Amino acid sequence: DDHNKENLFNSLNYDVAAKKRKKDLLNNKAKTQYFHQEKWIYVHKGSTKERHGYCTLGEAFNRLDFSSAILDSRRFNYVVRLLELIAKSQLTSLSGIAQKNYMNILEKVVQKVLEDQQNIRLIRELLQTLYTSLCTLVQRVGKSVLVGNINMWVHRMESILHWQQQLNNIQITRPPFKGTTLTDLPLCLQLNIMQRLSDGRDLVSLGQVAPDLQVLSEDRLLWKKLCQYHFTDRQIRKRLILSDKGQLDWKKMYFKLIRCYPRKEQYGDTLQLCRHCHILSWKGTDHPCTANNPETCSTSLSPQDFINLFRF
Q1: Which residue from 11, 59, 191, 249 has the fewest beta carbons nearer than 10 Å?
Q2: Do residues 118 and 105 make contact, with C-beta atoms less than 8 angstroms apart?
């Protein structure tokens, strides 16, 4: 009898474990997104959930329509930067639903990049940041720092590795259009276009396309303007580098400066907060503001400002 009871107990344990693994897998593969897709939300800093209007980072992430925002070229970089900041330090502050929505939005971002073959490096850096953070968090699973079953997070980490491999396998195809190209333009126009690039790595990559572009990409004035755009005069004076000819080597200074100081962030469209009614919305979105001049009450938020809004 004892032997039969032990076999029955083991069989029940096996069935429960099998059902649990199947449930975890189904939940992990579910693509249902719990977005309210609201155009604006009310945000109020409070210390307790009992306070009227209390809103967490996870709630704001769920309710604002970030899923559609990534399809807008003006908002894409803003959302990606926000995803990166959350991956670095705020992932554990999200609720289970918010974490699930985070991964769903991330998957949409990756699929968009795979389709249009743009912003590849940006998403590679995002995935690497997230994977590094998850490696640290999974090792601390005993402290319950992640919501959900550990197998679910291991599966998500495997998905990240798969996305990274897909990005590494991208082969940039030349468009069929055979009209005027960048190198066909006058040199002054080529240089003018290169001055619009805000990332020095893009300049280096562009210089590898053709010999003429290589010469332009080494222009001292180009790198000087890039340094002055991102950094203050005081920061620049602390990192002066002279070339063999005794001139300031602005290119080397730029790459040294970005290792020491954060670069200036610029976005086509941002989230904004109304100081009068505490409503958070995308720039250009109307909300029921009671101020006499609503436009004067709105403040643009950087991705870091958005996160700081929910630190109590």
Answers
A1: 11
A2: no
Strand (E) or helix (H) holding 272: strand 271-274
Listed range (2-6, 59-63, 94-98, 119-123) with the worst mean pLDDT: 2-6
Do residues 65 and 104 make contact, with C-beta atoms less than 8 angstroms apart? no
Q: Is pTM, for the whole model, over 0.90?
A: no
Rg (CA), the chain: 25
SS3 276: coil
Structural domain boundaries in the chain = 49-169, 199-260, 271-309
User: Which of the residue ranges 6-20, 86-100, 126-140, 189-203 would you say has the lowest mean pLDDT?
Assistant: 6-20
Q: In what order do the strands lie in the sheet with 40-42?
A: 40-42, 279-282, 271-274, 298-301
Q: What are phi and psi of 280, to 5 degrees?
A: -105, 130
The helix (run of H) or strand (run of E) holding residue 42 is strand 40-42
Distance CA 44, CA 179 (A): 54
∠ CA(277), CA(73), CA(87), 5° rounding?
70
Distance CA(53)–CA(30), nearest Å, equals 30
The CA distance from 19 to 25, in Å, is: 10
Measure the CA angle with vertex 282, ends 280 and 287; round to 5°: 60
Token digits for 198? Answer: 């805000």
CB 90 within 8 A of CB 61: no
Q: What is the pLDDT of residues 20-54, one digit of tens each?
A: 555 555 555 444 444 445 677 888 655 444 444 56
DSSP one-letter string for 201-225: HHHHHHHTT-HHHHHHHT-HHHHHH
Judged against a pLDDT cut of 70, whether residue 312 lies above it is answered with no
